[in-house]
Amino acid sequence: MKKIIVTGGTGYIGSHTAVELIEAGYEVIIIDNLSNSDSKVLDGIKNITGIKPEFYKIDLANTSETKKLFKKIQNVSGIIHFAAYKAVGESVQFPLKYYKNNLNALINILENMQEFNIENLIFSSSCTVYGQPEKLPVTEKSPVLKADSPYGNTKQISEEIINDTIKISETGKAVLLRYFNPIGAHESAEIGELPLGVPNNLVPFITQTAAGIRKQLRIFGNDYNTPDGTAIRDYIHVSDLAKAHIVALKRLLNGKNKSKIEVFNLGTGKGNSVLEIVKTFQKVTGIKLNYKIVDRRPGDIEKIWADVHYAEKELAWKTEKSLGEALLSAWNWEKKCRTSNN
């Protein structure tokens, strides 16, 4: 069994990827500081797979702690690096928090990869690196524009750091996966998106409003240049997204990569507006949402969706789950969370 480190593995996308890794026959080691997740997620992973991954609670931005841990873990075949702060709005308010955490953690990972001869890296990047593209849909060759938020900028800088590091490495290889908007939960409802405090992402805010945790859903802006005035994103089911990581990892492990650093967009290839998401949620659940239009949020772009032809061709991967399935799975997860908390 090949040993794979998943940083941020108790987080939303990390936990779903850990499940896919275990089911594909890998040994998973999760590193997380639990700043925006819960160790109970490990039980959810075990309930799905029958295996509870090895877990270490450390802060990867701490250089000495990280090195100590890498000395302890031997014979690692690859790292999937998720661990980062990820809220656009919060990053505008606290830029230094984002730069300090996201960049220091990555640098520590790369240094330890060099020291302990770990060759393969999958990096959790983001469509925010494209800023507000002039031309849609976005391809992997679309220009990386000035980021609209410190969060987006940390992803751009992280990609540059990885490029500069891998370029001079004799054996290092990396795949940069630029996600669009992950939503939904595992079909078992054992794991899902679990924001601590007020959610920063649309779908958990919708499900918490539907569950009565939030009085009202706020929609940030209805004066964008879109058909219904609300912002458009490409929403991808988190399980589809997780599966792409396994394909990308196998590509590196089997030496099928075409260059030392490869970039792939991961989305559905279709854009949906915020109001479309609200209406689809209402349709699949039968629940009417209380929502209100408020001012635009700093750092948000108007519209973006992916051109996914390159990922589909090179990775032989494509999304399988519909928007309705994703939203219904998110609601089933929310209901389970509320039941278990009562």
Short structural description:
The chain has helices spanning about 10-25, 40-50, 65-70, 90-95, 95-115, 150-165, 200-210, 240-255, 275-285, 310-315, 325-340; strands at about 5, 25-30, 55, 75-80, 120-125, 175-180, 180-185, 215-220, 230-235, 235, 260-265, 270-275, 290-295.
Topology of helices and strands:
Elements: E1 3-7, H1 12-23, E2 27-32, H2 41-49, E3 54-57, H3 63-72, E4 76-81, H4 88-93, H5 95-115, E5 120-126, H6 150-167, E6 173-179, E7 181-183, H7 202-210, E8 217-220, E9 232-233, E10 235-237, H8 238-253, E11 261-266, E12 272-273, H9 274-285, E13 291-294, H10 309-315, H11 323-341
Parallel strand pairs: 1-2, 1-4, 2-3, 4-5, 5-6, 6-11, 7-10, 8-13
Antiparallel strand pairs: 9-12
Helix pairs in contact: 1-2, 1-8, 3-5, 5-6, 7-11, 9-11
* Mean pLDDT over all positions: 96
Derived from helix and strand composition plus strand pairing, the structural class reads: alpha/beta
Q: Taking Cα atoms only, what radius of gyration do you get, to the nearest Å?
A: 19 Å
Q: What string gives the helices and strands in order?
A: EHEHEHEHHEHEEHEEEHEEHEHH
Annotation field: number of helices: 11
Q: List the domain count as a whole number.
A: 2
Relative helix content: 40-55%
Largest sheet: 7 strands, parallel
CATH topology of the largest domain: Rossmann fold
For the secondary structure, the number of strands is 13
Describe the 3D structure.
With 342 residues, the protein is an alpha/beta fold. The chain folds into 2 domains: 3-184 and 236-266, Rossmann fold; 202-233 and 269-306 and 316-341, UDP-galactose 4-epimerase, domain 1 (Alpha-Beta Complex). The protein is 41% helix and 17% strand. It contains 11 helices and 13 strands. The chain has helices at 12-23, 41-49, 63-72, 88-93, 95-115, 150-167, 202-210, 238-253, 274-285, 309-315, 323-341; strands at residues 3-7, 27-32, 54-57, 76-81, 120-126, 173-179, 181-183, 217-220, 232-233, 235-237, 261-266, 272-273, 291-294. The strands form 4 sheets. The chain has a 7-stranded parallel sheet with strand order 3-2-1-4-5-6-11, sandwiched between helices. α5 packs parallel to α6 (150-167). The longest helix is centred in the N-terminal third of the chain and has 21 residues, at 95-115. It is globular. The N and C termini lie far apart (40 Å).
